[in-house]
Amino acid sequence: MDELSELFTPSKIGNMPVSNRVIMAPMYTQLADEGGAVSDRLCTYYDRRAGGGMGLIIVENTVVAPGGESSLREIAIYHDRFIPGLMRLADIIHRRGVKAAIQLHHAGRQRSALLGQPVAPSPIACRFVKSQPRELTTTEADELIEAYAMGALRAKQAGFDAVEFHGAHGYLICQFLSAYTNKRNDRYGGSLENRMRFALDIVRRTRGLVGKDYPILFRISAKEFVPGGLDLDETKIIAKELENAGADCIDVSAGNYETGQWSCQPGWMPRGCLVPLAEEIRKGLHVPVIVAGRIVEPRMANRILAEGKVDFVALGRPFLADPEILLKARSGRYEDIRLCVACCHCMDSLMRAEPISCSINAEVGREGQAMVPAGRSKKVVVVGGGPAGLEAARVAALRGHRVILYEKDDKPGGQLLLAAVPPGKEELNSIIEYLTAQVYKAGVDVRLGRAVGVEEIISMQPDAVIIATGSETVLPEFSGTGKVDILLAREVIAGKGRTGKKIVVAGGGRVGCETAMLLAREGKDVTLVRISGKGRLAGELGPASRASFLEELTKSGVKIMADAVLKGMDDSGLSIERSGVITHIKVDTLVISPMPRSDDSLAAALKDRIPEIYTVGDCIRPRQIVDAIREGYLTAAEI
After folding, report:
1. Does domain 379-473+598-638 have CATH number 2.30.30.40?
2. 28, 46, 148, 171: the active-site residue
3. Mean pLDDT of the chain
4. Whether residue 16 has pLDDT greater than 90
């Protein structure tokens, strides 16, 4: 059997034929205009993805009523004036031969207070958003049912092939369904039958407006993973009642803002983690079921379908990382696929009220700024084979330049090689493999194990040099004497230093935390000391992943001492001061995770001796993979 045969089998949702069983999942972008109108930037984003060969795109959350938006740049559908822009968006998707649905949404209590006070079934604040909502009256709830249904009618008028109601992730419909957020005493609260009423009335009213043949999809959180929240026993009943009310398809997800790792799963969550939940819900239904959630590559998606677990697979972030993932897989070009690394940067960018971006695909959000061939082919030397250097070399070569890449180590990857070692970071290996394969395919002259110097570069007479020499970490001076071994976190991750049984990791940044977790999972007794004045624990992580990462850190058995000072060391261990109290800890190994420092010495030495010199990545200052790849891409795109 063809390893992708199930993926590319035609199917149906209601009466809507779909060319294959792959759906692009709805993902918020913040690319609409302020006020909710469809923008040029939004259209180019969807046009780029619609060329990817999926059967259906579910366009992102689209607000059905003023006051229900998640941000100022959420698509709106609550007035007829939005129909022309929505029609344009649907047409763009259709031109690529892809069906288009649109997701109808109201944030409820998960609306930011910066936009005004949110409304909700009950006045219970979300612990993540921390904004006190106002309880909806019964009349207002009735009006919102009509708003959802009218949004569906406008979607149909705009030419969308289907609508999806967003009843998952803790948004308004989910808030009505869940006893965790619904404490009402009217017909919309109390028993499960009453809590379902809001959702079921939306489906029934919509069916009355759009007709019996227009497909209605419904997204549900199979579990919220909060005490008293939705569980699988309830959602199986809810899904069946939605089917009875007229829903043509159930789209299974999980979580809410307080358990966001289930909605946007980080790398330490297992691949396909929502499939068992969707499979259980599907058992009681006659309508098709969709599942998303860490389905990262097409062969895995095909296996899920071949095993009969669900009817459709939805890929979200994989289409961010590589809009052509399906096309490449279908032609057997797996080495050319840029796989999602589950870093959650895309979600972090949205939570910072920025347009969507991707840590490994610098084109996301810039689809209208296509890479163009160079006006003149230049000789370009790239120094450093980390992510910034590899991306710069790839893009420069694709644009027609003659590129030579030097990397002092015997394999490319730079700091990514170490970053991929800690638990939950293994996915980063795929971006190393992708970038390495692409620079060779693009014709880059790759010279590994070569530390190139100033005079050698000058002798090559390059037109441009891109310095991507990264950063270095130096062991700080530490007072005291003793038998405690001292290692750098970077050495531990690289496997270059042996640690004892009892370990203190000093440094509460991401690298220190990951090192502590790695050692704890090896069975070591680990205490993590966050030095006073050094910021939050794992503060480099964004809001989408930090809370769940710290939960994983605690689960691994790491003991945490915050706001502490290392006072000294003797033969038996370390003296640590915290809140004015000095504690002595017996320890075999001290692992230090200091801040790395940039290495820009080569750039300084070449100044005024080369026509064009550029610096990218950590040699400017140590940061994240998104900065390295973005700077490598943008710099090479301009040479």
Report:
1. no
2. 171
3. 94
4. yes
